[in-house]
Amino acid sequence: MNAPDLLRTIRATPFVPLRLEFTGGHEEVVKHPDNIMVLGSSVLIAQYDDDPIVPEWSRKYSLRHLVRVEPARIESA
To answer: Does residue 77 have a pLDDT over 60?
Structure first.
């Protein structure tokens, strides 16, 4: 998937949480559009620990390794 296609998916209204699958089987779940930044050839995904407002860390992936994007199954508490 290229950057414009991923941006269209993220900007869809209403936003649907996404599961991103990368080569090697690694997966990331994006629960909110503010948690992901799409760059020209990569994607940055923010992750939260205790504070739901300020990300604790992030991971950067090359879009070349993005295999699949699909709606995430989020279990409600």
So the answer is: no
